[in-house]
Amino acid sequence: MPDYAHPQVLVSTDWLDKNRENTRDFRIVESDEDLLLYETGHIPEAVKIDWVNDLNHPVVRDYIDGEDFAELCGRHGIGPDTTVIFYGDKNNWWACYAFWIFKLNGHKNCLILNGGRKKWVDEGRAMTKVAPVYPSRTYSPPGPNPAIRAYRDEVLKHAKAGGPLVDVRSPEEFTGQRTHMPEYPQEGVLRGGHIPGAVNCPWSRAVAPDGTFKTREELEKIYLEELGLKSEKDTIAYCRIGERSSHTWFVLTYLLGFRHVKNYDGSWTEWGNSVGLPIEKGGG
Amino acid sequence: MDGRGSYAPPLAMGGKGFVLSRFDELIELFQSVDDATRGELLLDYSRRVPGLNDQTIDADELASHRLHECQTPVFLWMSVEGGKMRIRGVVADEAPTVKGFLGVILHGLEDATPEDVQSMPDDLMDRLGLGTMLRMNRAIGLSAMIARIKREAASAASGKDGQI
Description:
The complex is a heterodimer of chains A (284) and B (164).
Chain A: E1 10-11, H1 13-19, E2 26-30, E3 47-48, H2 51-55, H3 66-75, E4 83-87, H4 89-104, E5 110-113, H5 116-122, H6 152-160, E6 165-167, H7 171-175, E7 199-200, H8 216-226, E8 235-238, H9 244-255, E9 261-264, H10 267-271
Parallel strand pairs in A: 1-5, 2-3, 2-4, 4-5, 6-7, 6-8, 8-9
Chain B: H1 18-31, H2 35-46, H3 59-64, E1 74-81, E2 84-91, H4 96-108, H5 114-117, H6 124-127, H7 131-158, E3 162-163
Antiparallel strand pairs in B: 1-2, 1-3
């Protein structure tokens, strides 16, 4: 993986297999869309961190932070100096989301297993149903890292100034043809379309058939040539609730070396429901 | 959290059909345990539904039986034989939660008539105590599954024996 801007944030399945028993320096974390997938089998040294029950605030629409984040880490034997290696289902979709939330909370060393759960399973590597338990640690978070998160008003200012925005939802959601799936009224939004000026690129285009990230050359072709994004410009990525866009945030930041990318986690479920915000339709 | 906050009273009352009483048993079972055990129960039921990896069904056939309401690949075949609903489901292997929920539904609807299907509780997920565990983000597709099964059973009930 030498071509990427920051290749050190990725580890290969081979590397992880050789180093997975070093649980003193590393903590492997599985983060999946499915609540019970970890229980059906996981990398032997991996602990489970769930995006809903562990990382989301139980009441407010926000992520855990401060003491709650410190408690979660400490419970899994993660200290401030522990390197956390994330992997998961759906091409690391939720692993990148967990990675972003750890970074948002200021955790220093975070890595992604290239190819995620799929590649590990496809290669027939060791799996177990036994959840490991590690001695708990005391963790005082170094303080949040708000520079990677965009809020609504800031996105509005950015859009008005013509700043680059990447909408990583499906083309149907982008054009406004679809606001919600049939019988998903609660997940729906009142207006369809996209933030004015945004370009559309479904997040999964960054992934190769074996679940690993595409090569730098292939990624540059999509994000730089096709979409016209520029690595030196401040860029904001969004989707429906900020999970798919954390994958694209990872790709732009670490694989293509964009100077400053923010994930707008309020995303379309906030924008498309807010009064008076500008919306563009069509253009898919 | 043990999910008891979402406890709903059992459905069984005198004169209710057997589908209701079977769901009552399931609800009682799921409500009697904590979240961790409830997860294990769901995994047990997930094993009763075949995974997509074991199947040799062609792509067109799969596409025409896919439940588009679910983000997870879920496929259903429903037919009426001798007045009873025959329901077969296949779910992506990497979605054990969805597989498990469908396993519960299929268990509850064994030998049901198309009319019986309509009495399946719409809020089954909450009644099983899964609402708090899954929260809204994950729960919506599962509720859609119930609506879809009822709709298809209703159209089966209006016709004769046959496949949907």
